[in-house]
Amino acid sequence: RWLLGAAGLALAVYLLLPPDWMKELRFATPFLVLFPILMAVLIDQWAGYFGARAGVALNVAALLLALSLALLTATDYGPRLQRFSASPTVDYTNICGIAERIDALAAAGGMTDYSVLEPDAGCVLWLDRYRLIDLGGLNDAVIARTYGRDEAALHDYIFSETRPTILELAGKWAAAANLQADPRFAADYLPLYTYVDEHFHTSDGAPVLAGIFVRRDLNLSAAQVERMQQLAPSIMPQ
Question: Which among 96, 186, 209, 228 could disulfide-bond with 123, CB atoms 3.0 to 4.6 Å apart, if both were Cys?
Fold first, then answer.
């Protein structure tokens, strides 16, 4: 019963979530893991309940079902996997490179324990070089709840609670967050590299100020700032 309930909840959560822009069923992972286990347990229980003869029939049915699913997986997911590998929605190695360059930027500023606000999480968590504050909201419940819905609460959370050491802002993530509208943005953060992204606009109609920013209260030396300014463009080239 608990397995049936868990699989049902996993499916319900996936169905209730809005469409995923990455389109590869990543939010259905719990259900896709639990469903075959659930089927195996149910077949085993049914076999015991209906007796030995029915058990053989169910085993044959289970084998045929498994072969059918394997064939479906090979014919459907195989080509999809090839297409996705050739042109991934977000290139994992590219995100790894960004994380490594951010770490090099922090090292140039003498930072060993720091946090970064950015929208790409996967490889960042894998490398574990710094504390991630996920602007995409997948790893942060407060941002997930306030992002694009409650700017004031989001800004308070970022500028007063989490106070990230480094900001990486660009594209639709920066547009929806609209941090540039808050006075604390300019007061608390020193721009290392910026550009105006005319492709995206904030809720008040302003084009996005994209770039790399670092906290002013770190009291960086002029030499450190200069070196970080040299490195910053490599993190997010236009």
Answer: 96
Query: Which of 61-65, 167-171, 187-191 comes out lowest in average pLDDT?
Result: 61-65
- The b-or-e profile of 118-132 (16+ CB within 10 A means b, else e) is bbbbebbeeeebbeb
Among the listed residues 32, 37, 39, the one whose alpha carbon sits nearest the alpha carbon of residue 14: 32
Assigned token pair, 111? 């930072």
Residue 166: closest CA among 234, 233, 94, 232: 232
pLDDT tens digits, one per residue of 116-168: 999 988 788 888 899 999 998 888 999 999 998 999 999 999 999 999 999 99
Q: Pick the residue with more confidence: 7 or 114?
A: 114
pTM of the model: 0.75
Long-range (24+ apart) CB contacts under 8 A made by 224-227 are 224/108, 224/109, 224/110, 225/109, 225/190, 225/192, 227/108, 227/109
Residue keyed to tokens 């995923």: 20
**d(Cα 193, Cα 65) in Å, to the nearest integer?**
56
Closest listed residue to residue 167, CA positions, set 181, 149, 185, 153? 185
Q: How far apart are CA 157 and CA 215, in angstroms?
A: 16
d(CA 34, CA 236): 39
